[in-house]
Every structure is written in structure tokens, then in C-alpha cells.
Amino acid sequence: MLTKSLSRVLKVAGVTAMVPLATLVLAPKAHASTLLSTTPEVIFSDFTDLDGTDKLTFNKYDSEKEETIIDKIVLSLKAELTTEGTVTNKTRSSRSVTVKSELKQFDIQTDIGLDPFAVFSTPQFLINKSYSVGANKTIDIDTFTTSTTITKEFTSIAEISKFLGKTGTYSFLPFTNIETNVSANGGNVSSDISTLAKITAQVQYYGEKKVSVRRRVPEASTTFGILALAGVMLVSQTSKPQKKLAV
Predict the structure, then answer these.
(1) 56: buried, middle or exposed (CB in 10 Å: 19+, 13-18, 0-12)?
(2) 104 in Cβ contact with 123 (< 8 Å)
(3) In the predicted model, is pLDDT for residue 237 greater than 60?
(4) Is 238 helix (H, G, I), strand (E, B) or coil?
(5) Using one digit for the tens of pLDDT, what is the confidence trace for 71-123?
(6) CB half-sphere exposure, 97, CA atoms < 13 A
(7) How are the residues of the chain apportioned to helix, strand and coil, as percentages rounded to the nearest 5?
């Protein structure tokens, strides 16, 4: 090999210490994890309660085709709950009506076997307010909106593998449980209260491009320069005049 013969020449020339052989082989640089791909946003809205029928579905990422190594997947999710409706007093006198709507559950499950995770902290009231409703009157209650944004990271090999594939999809499935109660002193009150859930989701893939690791050799000009230097020094040493021995 070139590196072995070069080492011998340098040793003869007495300059081995000046150009160590180890400096001629460069180690590959480490690659930092970067954002490689972002999916389009997936949006849906539906009235609660949600039972997993509605899905946020994405295509799996083909890391082999893209020649990438994935080390992190990030789900960004925004959820919004909007509650509104009407209350009717069916009696001949005014009534004080209290409307309570309490969120008991808002979780996300998957169809690829990942652990469920919460979107909202629960329990929490979406509505807890009293209204004065006149005799034989119907009123619109206030519109109440609550929202949150969460980021969920998946970093283990087992988790990441579930998002990858040449074909196929994966889905996030929302589940909610909302309890609504309308009460009035004296009764004879009806209501129509509904909560609309809107969810927006997006997935990002982080990692690095695959790189072929090859050992780098010196450029031709560098190699010939070193050989030339070694040759000159060798000639210089052999051409020095020899001292005469005393008779």
C-alpha cells in the first residue's frame, strides 16, 4: 500500500516524527440531527363526544427511499373545544338556570400500538355559569372556547420504527368525555348544548442523510511533495564526504 511504502521512505530520511502517518488518515465527521421532512397539516372537526372514529391519518415515511436515518419524530397538535347552545324556560315565571359542562377526558390513542397521551388536563369546566331566563323564553348561552397546543416526541427505536415503511399509514385517534348538566329552581327547563372539537396535527421527522464512510488518502501533490523531500534528505546524507582515518 502507498501508506506503508511512504512510511519506510520517511523513516530512512529521518523525518518520521515530522509527518506522522496517522495524520494522513482523516476520521469522518459526526453529523448533527436536522429536520428532514414535515408532513402537511391534517385537520378535522366534529361534535363530541369523540370515540376514535375520527382519525388524523398520515402516510408512513420511507427512510430507505430517502436514504436517511431517523432519530426523532415530533407530533405537533392543536386542539380547540367550542361550546354553545340554548336554554328554554317552559314555565310562567322567570327561572335561574345554571349550565355546567365539564371535560372529563381528552386523550389521543394510535393505531400503531403507542401509549395514549392526554391533550387537555382534566377534569376542567368548559362552562359553569348561571342565567336568568324569562317565562316561556329561550336564550342563547355564551360561546365558550378553550384550546391547547402540545408537542409529543418519539425517540426510542421501537417507537420510531412504527412510523416508517415503504407503504401504509398511521393514525391518531381522539377520545373525549364531556358531561353537561343544566339545572333550574323549579324545573321545566330544556336545553340544547353542544361542544365542537377541532384538531390540527402535523408530524416532523428528524435525523441525518446516510453518508458512505471512506478513508481519505493524501492528494497526489501532497504525496509526491513528501517523497521528494525524503529523497533530497536521503541524497544529502549519503553524499557527505567521509572523514579520513588517521594513520
Answers:
(1) buried
(2) yes
(3) no
(4) helix
(5) 999 999 999 999 999 999 999 999 999 999 999 999 999 999 999 999 999 99
(6) 28
(7) 20, 50, 35
Q: What pTM value is reported for the model?
A: 0.71
Q: What is the rounded average pLDDT of the residues 18-29? A: 45
Among 187, 81, 167, CA closest to 124: 81
Q: What is d(CA 174, CA 81) in angstroms, rounded to the nearest whole number?
A: 13
Residue 4's H or E segment, with its range, is helix 2-13
DSSP codes joined into one string, 52-116 = S-S-EEEEPB-HHHHTEEEEEEEEEEEEEEEEEEEEEE-SSS-EEEEEEEEEEEEEEEESSSPPP
CA distance 80 to 145: 7
- H/E run at residue 227: helix 220-238
- 3-class secondary-structure state, position 11: helix
Contact 85, 191 (CB under 8 A): yes
